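Chapter review: from sequence to fold.
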Amino acid sequence: MPRYLEFRVSLNDIEPEIWRRFMLLENATFEHLHECIQDAFGWEECHLFEFRDKKGRNAIAHAEEDDTFLDEDVPAVDELTLASFFTKKGTKCQYVYDMGDSWEHAVEFLGAVELPDNFQRRLLDGARACPLEDSGGVWGYQNCVEVASMSEEDIKKSGDAEEKLERKEWIGDWNPEAFDLKAAKKDFDV
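The token string follows.
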């Protein structure tokens, strides 16, 4: 029977929590984990990233295309298997995406399981919509949440109406509370 690794990933510093839970094959690399996080959250994979230790201080794997990475002892994500790092249930690390906006994700290994099903990866659960790409980090995300909840009348009454109207137009119909597991699974499950 195939063996799968189960993970729970959540965005740091955002309340209520934005999170996803998924499984992928045991022989997967950190590159596969990166792809899972991108697809599960709905990121657009247009920025550099790296994996760091659970406190976020030391890199453990970096983006292959990051030619500015100076520590030669840290492997590229396609060189490090998940099973070599996540050896015990509860092992954690950080995934940092977009070094400008600095989206920090807490990655927790929930354990390994053997299943009769044969798949590469499977999205199991999650909550809330991912922040919009290039929204400006946690502060920009909070601004988007505020503007999404405001009517156009309320925005016009606010002190920074022009900026908020532009932001409202930019976010369109984005809803910070929306997460459609069934729709997300169609794009994620392989």
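Two observations follow directly from the output. The chain has two domains: 3-129+177-188, 137-171. The beta strands are 3-11, 19-25, 49-53, 59-62, 92-97, 103-114, 121-127.
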